[in-house]
Amino acid sequence: MTVTGDVGAERRRRIRARNRALLAVLLGLVVLFYVVSIVRLSGG
Amino acid sequence: MSEHLSTATVPGVVPYAGAAVGDYLQILKPRVMSLVVFTAFVGLVLAPGHLHPVLAAVAVLCIAVGAGASGAINMWYDRDIDAVMRRTANRPLPAGRMMPGEALGFGIVLAVGSVAVMGLAVNWVAAELLALTIAFYVFVYTMWLKRRTPQNIVIGGAAGALPPLVGWAAVTGDVGWGGIALFAIIFFWTPPHFWALSLYRAGEYEAAGIPMLPVVAGARETKRQMLIYTLMLWPAALMPWLLGIAGPVYGACAGVLSLVFTATAIRVWADDSERSARQMFAFSLLYLFLIFTVLLVERVAGGRW
């Protein structure tokens, strides 16, 4: 029972870490597209 | 996916949670990526013209992600032979920490994304060259040549040689002679670099069924070809100086480094021990790093960037 609980906790931790990484990537892309748009519009 | 869902209903069987973030980073081959980024950055700096620093950073990011995508798809395809070789057995796929579909999907998304962003943000010539680099590495090297011919890393080496050309094209929008010179340096450097490694890893390559030159033609023929390629590297290494994109300091450094690289090949030729091949492999990494560093430093110190 303890082993299953540990594995379940590890599974949740892994999924949470992956979700956070995905969130960071998506936010990074938003910032990237915003900055690139500003640069391109200003003739860079 | 359905098989994972079905395991959740079996008592005592924990459903697969997917790979860890670190595994996703590992399949991008970060060490290879760092070399690709460095050479691409030098191509970008040496190219004539100006690129806004933000767009230059985006170009380097796209090249890094594109290289990572190639690595991920390569690991997906090569998971069977990676499991056989000690050097690669602990990668996420052969170690069972990641499902093949995860690696493939991740690689394809990154490949398409990096090319699209490069095209939209920088220019489409650089994007096409990036797409060519990824496609060449995946289809020509990984799927076609690697398991079929001892010339795998000679022809496939073109994929590793393209990044500085992509960096060059990001600035100029075309393929210039300077970019081709940088391409030639990496192209002729690749065979002796990988054959030095395969000389002391021949057993592993043989077990995995990869026809590396030492496995197919033997150590003597490999050493002969390594020496020939270090000699062919000379004109390529001096080309940036001859073309005028690098100065005399680079020319002198390239000459000395190429001389030492050739000397290591002669030593490998004369010495049957594993040690000389290991030392040549180590020096080959230093060689490429120093060649591109001198190009970069000379350009930056000359105030032409």
Name the descriptors.
heterodimer; A: mainly alpha; rod-shaped; B: mainly alpha; Tetracycline Repressor, domain 2; 2 domains; 0% strand
Helix content of chain A: over 70%
Query: Shape of chain A from CA axes?
Result: rod-shaped
Biggest beta sheet attributes of chain B: none
Give the domain tally of chain B.
2
Output the helix-strand order of chain A.
Answer: H
Question: Termini separation of chain A (Å)?
Answer: 61 Å
> How much is the radius of gyration of chain A in Å?
19 Å
Strand content of chain B: under 5%
What does this structure look like?
The complex is a heterodimer of chains A (44) and B (305). With 44 residues, chain A is mostly helical. Chain A has one domain. Chain A contains one helix and no strands. Chain A has one helix at residues 2-41. The longest helix of chain A is centred in the middle third of the chain and has 40 residues, at 2-41. Chain A is rod-shaped. The termini of chain A are far apart. The model of chain A has no long low-confidence stretch (mean pLDDT 86). Chain B folds into two domains: 21-134 and 163-173, Tetracycline Repressor, domain 2 (Orthogonal Bundle); 176-305. By secondary structure, chain B is an all-alpha fold. Chain B has 15 helices and no strands. In chain B, α13 (218-243) runs antiparallel to α14 (248-270). Chain B is flat. The interface between A and B is medium-sized, with 16 and 17 residues.
